[in-house]
Amino acid sequence: MDSSSLLTVLNELYSQYKSLQEGTVANYIPELAKVNPELFSICIVTVDGQIYKVGDYEHFFTIQSISKVFAYGLALEDHGRDYILTRVGVEPTGDAFNAIILDEQSKRPYNPMVNAGAIATTSLIKGSDPTERLNRMLEMFKRYIGRDMLVDISIFTSERSTGHRNRAMAHLMLNFGMIDRNIEEALDLYFQQCAVMVNCQDLAVMAATLANRGMNPITKVQAVDKPHIKDILSVMYTCGMYNFAGEWAYKIGIPAKSGICGGIIAVVPNKMGIGVFSPPLDARGNSVRGVKVCEELSQRLGLHLFDCLGQEAKFGIGD
Ligand code: GLN
């Protein structure tokens, strides 16, 4: 497929789904409920640095759960895979992203893509004090995105003052020795990571960085050590879309991660990163338009990882 046809596909999907009015914006974090539900953007960045974008791709929003992917990468770099596996599992839960559950036997949270697992992961980020840990986190995001990162303070404080469910998970993990650090400090860093500001193009660049073996295709900066990419993409594939992960893997077939901001990233290894932003969510917390767009992109471009016919026949960019 040539570049102009890919842009045509994005424009078609944009017009097709712009009028779709299903879903509701997340409102359990009061500040998040203020978002305009009409915002909609789709962006693709290829591993050779081409950018295709449509809609409100410059609008900033907070990254929310999509951050979990990148915090997991930093924790893997800080401690290595074996240690991280003793603290956070890699099993899909089949439960909601905010379920208050741990693995009965190991007492680990099930995986790093749901809240409990992400709080545990973030509590492992190295640094001598909260400021150093936050700075390391922001530096990590900067490597993926290519500019200085900011935290949306009103969203951060809104979640910090209402996030008692996450606080309950953190206490449960403290009880079982799965978090060693001061709980409020660990939660602050988790809430700050969720409140990092990005736009849809940033999402696609981050996804493309993962697709490009950890190297940002625009800045050429190595954002994460190569050996961790397969672990990151594996948990995205099996757990990134929460209790929709199985159906997503079956129908769409590429590693992905969503957030209650209404963003989705999807990674086509060695080809491209996809970012979609549209705030109204379905009952599982995934963007309604985002899921539809990714489903159709996967079909039209033959992106499903196990669709050998699709890949041979339809998709040539980056080959
Ligand atoms: N900050 C949100 C929370 O912890 C992130 C959840 C999400 O995006 N699924 O509840």
Provide structural commentary.
The protein has 319 residues and is α+β, with helices and mostly antiparallel strands. It has two domains: 3-64 and 197-315, DD-peptidase/beta-lactamase superfamily (Beta-lactamase, 3-Layer(aba) Sandwich), CATH 3.40.710; 65-194, 3-Layer(aba) Sandwich (Beta-lactamase). The chain has 13 helices and seven strands. It has helices at residues 3-18, 67-79, 81-87, 115-122, 130-145, 153-162, 164-175, 183-194, 200-211, 229-239, 245-251, 288-301, 308-314, and strands at residues 41-46, 51-55, 61-62, 197-198, 256-258, 263-268, 272-277. It has a five-stranded antiparallel sheet. The protein has a two-stranded antiparallel sheet with strand order 3-4. A hairpin with a 3-residue loop joins strand 6 (263-268) and strand 7. Glutamine is lined by residues 64-65, 97-98, 115, 159, 166, 194, 259-260, 285.
- In total, the number of domains comes to 2
Cα gyration radius (Å): 18 Å
CATH superfamily of the largest domain: DD-peptidase/beta-lactamase superfamily
Helical/strand content category: alpha+beta
Strand content: 5-15%
In CATH terms, what is the architecture of the largest domain? 3-Layer(aba) Sandwich
* Uncertain stretches of 5 or more adjacent residues: none
Gross morphology is globular
* Mean of all residue-level pLDDT scores: 95
